Amino acid sequence: MKTATLASIALAMSVTVANAQTIGVSMSDLDKFRTALLNGVVSHGKTVSGLKLVTENAKGDNELQKKQVQKLIADKVDAIILAVSDGDLGPQMTKMAADAGIPLVYINNVPSNLLDLPENQVVVASNEKESGTLETKQVCTLLKGKGRVVVLMGEPFHAAARARTQDISDVIATPECKGLEIIERQAAYWSRDYADEQMQEWLSAGVKFDAVIANNDEMALGAIRAMKKAGMPMKDVVVAGVDATDDALAAMVAGDLDVTILQSAVGQGAAAVEAAVKLVNREKVPRENDVPFELVTPENIAQYLPKSQ
C-alpha cells in the first residue's frame, strides 16, 4: 500500500485555501495525547488562510460521536477530520461522509475498513508496527534479553492498542529477546488511574516483574505512581510507554521512566489538516499517510524536551 511521509506531505500540499472553507474536527475523547493531537490540528489550521475549524469532543461516547459527525454533515462542512476510539466505527463513519460527498480524514486511529475507503477518504497516523517494536526492543536491550514483563494495554478495540500489544509479542519471539516472559497482561484503557489500580492489584497479589511495557505513557505513569506508593525502587524496574508526552519526559528526567516513543501529535495534526485541504480542493492524497515514531531514552532526551507534546 502506498504511503506518504510527513515530509512529502508538507512538500506536496498547498497551505492556502482559495475560498473560505470549514473543516469539522471530531475527537473521540480528550485524554493527554488526544488533547495534544487536537492542539496540533488547531495550531496548524491557524496557519491556513481562510480556514475555519469546528471542533467536537465525544467524551468517549461512540453514539455521541456519530451524532456529532451527523451534525457536522448537516452543517455542510467542507471536510471532516475524525479521531475514532474504535476502528470498527470506520464503516459507519465512512458511509455517512461518502453519502454526503464530504472528504474525510481519519487521524491517529486506523479504521477497520481501510482498504475500502473511497478516494476522498484517507488516514493520517503513525505506523504502529514501529511503536511497540521500538519500545520492546529497547526494554529487551536494557534487560539484556531476560526478564519477567507485565503489559498494560489500551482500549481493546483500538487499532493502536492491538498493534502495539502484538508488537510486544513479536519482539519477544525473536532469538535475542526470547528470554523475556509476559507474566501478566491487562487493559487499562489508556488511563493513568486505571493503570495505577491495575498495578496495585498486581503488587497486592505478589506479582514479581522486571519491566512494565505500556501501550501509552499515561498507563506507564499510572504504574509508576502505584509502584512508588508501594515503596518500590524505580531503579529496580524498567518502565516503557509511548507518546513522549510532557509528563512522560518529566518522569524520564526524574529517573522514573526508562523508555518512551515520540508519536508526534503536532505532526499528525498538521498532516491531517493538509490532507483535508487537499481533498477539498479535489487533489489526490495517498490513502495512508505515515508520521514516523522516534525512540526517546535518557541518553537522547535533551533533543526532545523542546518539542514535548
From TrEMBL:
**What are the entry keywords?**
Signal
Molecular function (Gene Ontology), one example: carbohydrate binding
Signal peptide location: 1-20
Stretches assigned to the Periplasmic binding protein domain? 23-283
Subcellular location(s) of the protein = Cell envelope
Q: Name one GO cellular component term.
A: cell envelope
PANTHER family from the entry? Answer: D-ALLOSE-BINDING PERIPLASMIC PROTEIN-RELATED
Q: Identify its protein family.
A: Belongs to the bacterial solute-binding protein 2 family.
Q: What is this protein called?
A: Ribose transport system substrate-binding protein/inositol transport system substrate-binding protein
Task: Identify the taxonomic lineage of the organism of origin.
Answer: Bacteria, Pseudomonadati, Pseudomonadota, Alphaproteobacteria, Hyphomicrobiales
